[in-house]
Design goal:
Blueprint (H helix, E strand, L loop, with lengths): L8 H12 L5 E4 L6 E4 L8 E5 L4 E7 L3 E6 L2 E6 L3 E4 L13 H13 L14 H13 L11 H8 L10 E6 L6 E16 L2 E13 L5 E9 L6 E2 L4 E5 L6 E9 L4 E4 L3 E3 L9
Length: about 280
């Protein structure tokens, strides 16, 4: 059985910071011009780890008398308090279909650089390509599904350099008409055929499954089947399997269970066309 927590990665960071920060969770680099040195120790003589651009948003771990212990792009270090502006909330505005076109196109340009959109899909509309890109972004970076909504937490993770670049693969989404629950699976191969013999290949597959809506938290069990729409084995991610033309396509079945152990949604099969060179969405 594979279990995916719908707890937000951003929320986990936020909870950690709530427990350790003395007065605020975030800070903005407020130099008059130029960059701010992030040092290995709270000392003017300590090694410079990063040069933080003016206006950067950073996470606060601990406030001290002259220095603040911070996180920036997966590195921790120390910066002078006098060059920080304290923030109690993330300074990002949620992006929805009703948002200003400039906010939408700015976000699209950002995720285009990470491979989640094509250049011809950059415009001022919260359209199908953006919805699809947003779902991939959330799945690949283990943050909650929020259909039609770019959260401030996700925007922060992008700025902090905590998101991975997009991989080619297949995205499937289902909406349960009875519960309204949305279930999405993004499935991609490793880009590596582990061995090939007698027209059979062994393939390494990675996937992520999440649910949105209803009353979380949820856990999701996933079953793999080749060439048939019943039976199969429960799998974790990543998994490997041997495929040949006789086996047909890969099917993944997702079952969503709530915190009480009750089945909320049993999805129809998510079908992935074989062989495994998945270059199209």
């Amino acid at each position: 059985m594979v279990t995916f927590s719908t707890a937000s990665l951003a929320q986990e960071y936020e909870e950690m910071l709530r427990q350790s920060a003395e007065s605020f969770l975030y800070a903005k680099v407020a130099t008059q011009k130029g960059t701010l040195n992030m040092r290995a120790e709270p000392s003017d003589n300590a090694k410079v780890l990063e040069k933080l651009p003016r206006g950067s948003i950073i996470q606060v771990i601990e406030n001290m008398e002259e220095w603040t212990h911070v996180l920036y792009k997966n590195r921790s270090g120390y910066v002078k308090n006098s060059f920080l502006e304290a923030l109690n909330d993330l300074p990002y505005t949620p992006i929805t279909k009703e948002s200003d076109g400039s906010a939408i196109i700015g976000f699209k340009r950002t995720i285009y650089k990470l491979g989640y959109l094509k250049s011809e899909e950059i415009n001022q509309r919260f359209d199908k390509p953006m919805e699809k890109a947003l779902t991939k972004l959330q799945l690949m970076n283990d943050v909650p599904l929020t259909p039609g909504l770019v959260t401030p937490e996700l925007q922060a993770l992008i700025e902090w350099g905590k998101v991975v670049k997009c991989k080619s693969g297949f995205l499937d989404t289902q909406v349960d008409p009875d519960t309204g629950l949305t279930v999405s699976i993004f499935c991609w191969d490793s880009g590596e055929i582990l061995f090939e013999e007698d027209s059979s290949v062994k393939i390494n597959v990675t996937f992520c499954a999440k649910a949105a809506g209803g009353q979380p938290p949820y856990s999701i069990t996933v079953v793999k089947s080749l060439g048939k729409i019943s039976g199969g084995d429960e799998v974790t991610s990543p998994f490997s399997f041997i495929w040949s033309e006789n086996f047909g396509d890969l099917y993944l079945y997702a079952t969503v269970v709530d915190a009480s152990g009750n089945t909320v949604t049993a999805c129809t099969p998510f079908r992935y066309t074989m062989p495994a060179r998945w270059n199209e969405d």
